[in-house]
Amino acid sequence: MQESTVYRSIQREAQEENSRSIALNLLRGGVAIGLIASSTGLSIEEVQQLQQQLDAASH
Fold first, then answer.
1. Which residue, 58, 56, 43, 47, is CA-closest to 21?
2. What are the φ and ψ backbone dihedral angles of 44, each rounded to 5 degrees?
3. Which of 3, 15, 20, 41 is the most exposed place for a label (fewest CB within 10 A)?
4. Are 47 and 36 in contact (CB under 8 A)?
5. Ordered alpha helix ranges (H), the chain
6. Structural domains of the chain, count
């Protein structure tokens, strides 16, 4: 059975959210941005944005 476009879209969004969650945990642990990006599949820019969000939340 072929998966619907909607299902694939929802699945992709869930995977991206999971990657962001993992990246946030790694950032909190002090892991380097480049390593996080290569490990999660997120771009360096996305990881940097997450870092900025963490920094803003801690102030």
1. 47
2. -60, -40
3. 3
4. yes
5. 5-28, 33-40, 44-57
6. 1
Question: Residue 50 sits in which domain range?
Answer: 5-57
Indicate whether this model's pTM tops 0.85. Answer: no
Cβ–Cβ < 8 Å for 31, 46: no
Residue type, 37: A
- pLDDT tens-digit readout, 27-48: 999 999 999 999 999 999 999 9
d(CA 16, CA 2): 22
Most distant CA pair in the chain, distance: 50
